[in-house]
Amino acid sequence: MAWILIIIAGLMEPCWVYTLERSENFKQLQWAALTVVLVVIDIILLSQAMTVLGPGTSYAIWVGIGAVCTLIMGILIFDDSASWLRIAFVMLIIVGIAGIHITAGGA
After folding, report:
1. Average confidence (pLDDT) over 42-60
2. Contact criterion met (CB below 8 Å) for 73 and 85
3. What are φ and ψ of residue 79, in 5° steps?
């Protein structure tokens, strides 16, 4: 269950990044409020996963999933560059996430 929570928390990262962008530096109050709600839910899910997986594993997985998904969102929605080198480095993050999962042991 902890792995499911951390995956959901990681997938929430690009959601609140998107709402943060839409809030225009917290000037659009409905988007700003949604950003705060999503961040709070995200942190709650992370903290729940930490009780089983520990802080190091949880944080590494959370940041990795969030970074990869946010980068993909940036490429697809915000026209960030998508060079082959950037994609290769994203693949390294994905390999790192898989490696952490494989070596996490009984958690």
Report:
1. 95
2. no
3. 60, 35
